[in-house]
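REVIEWER CHECKLIST
Item 1: Sequence provided? yes
Item 2: Single chain? yes
Item 3: Sequence as submitted:
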Amino acid sequence: MRTLLVTSSLVLALFSAATSAQNADAIDAPRITQQAFKKLVAAHNVIIVDTRRAETFAEGHIRGALLLPLEGSLTWPDESESVVAVLIKTRKPVVTYCACSDEATAARAALMLQARGVKNVKALRGGWNEWVKAGNPVVTSTKSTKSGPK
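Item 4: Structure as written out by the authors:
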């Protein structure tokens, strides 16, 4: 019960910080640049976590991303605990992303995962929007595509 109260307090504090964020660093979570992230992706040395809603994830996501929906919610769904368990055990860097202009949801997820014992977790600067804008590959429910401005 005490663990639940501590976790709830942390989540509420993080949610408050996220909703009152005025700039990209308002939530003091580690960040990774798009360039550094691309190097990890190319080396197959990263666990990628999409924190957007399931419907949005299905419309397109970064190849290999695990879904841990946190957007618009204080906590991820109970069924996401298996993803959290995998992240706790990994030795690879973990990068979270969202579609927020200030990567607030990804930063909140990074802090929540750190609190659960995940090592080396960072939020992707610019998130999904910058990834797509740069023309990087994305995956939909049935295919991989090259995305970007038309």
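Item 5: Key structural point noted by reviewer: The first strand starts at residue 31 and ends at 32.
Item 6: Recommendation: ____
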